Amino acid sequence: MSFSYNGEPVLSRVYFKIFPLDLVSLIGPNGGGKTTLFRLLLGLLRPGHGTIRIFGQSPDRARIRVGYVPQYARFDPRFPISVRDVVAMGRLGKLRTGPYRTSDREAALEALEEVGLAYLRSRPFADLSGGQRQRVLIARALASKPELLLLDEPTANLDRTAEARLYELLRKLNRRLTILMASHDVGFVTKFVKQCLCVNRNVILHPTAKLDGGIIRQLYGSEMAVVRHDHELPGFDAGLEDV
Description:
243 residues, 8 helices, 29% helix
């Protein structure tokens, strides 16, 4: 598959397969094509050449089986919307006409329980911390009962504690969902995933264990400092400190 914006190649000769219950991370530089690849998988863009199949269908037909958490959630902090109502938005694709049904509200509450935030269901969304908001947005995606979950930079602007909790949540969800997520934190992500899609115009699927300095330099085009999180320092919890 290939895709261009106004004649400028963004993704070229892309070929890969993701299998059920895989947990795969997209890594690569800004502008390398990660968000474009997500939009193609969601059917919001169409490839210039080649085809995409999700569950054996075109992306626009398979979209109802895919949950998506975007990189940036734009909202007006003055808008009086509750956590429960934000999550219920994930059911809009299931509605034909009319207001939410009982099954929609039950699905929203179930999704909030799965991310551990059911106790905040009546709280204004604007009052939540960054980590809580991100989990609410994941719950919104889960409310549609997806089989594939796409997350675009889910840990952006989160502190290490919130980030670790989020990855633990994703690892739990991976027991029943296929997950594809974009992240810049190569050192942290490699603790949780077995495969990485390296995206920089071309796309190459690597086992995480084979990522090395040469692959990283080739991907990012320069030297890059990889922060490790697998050494324990006195007074710190293992896995949460920077070394």
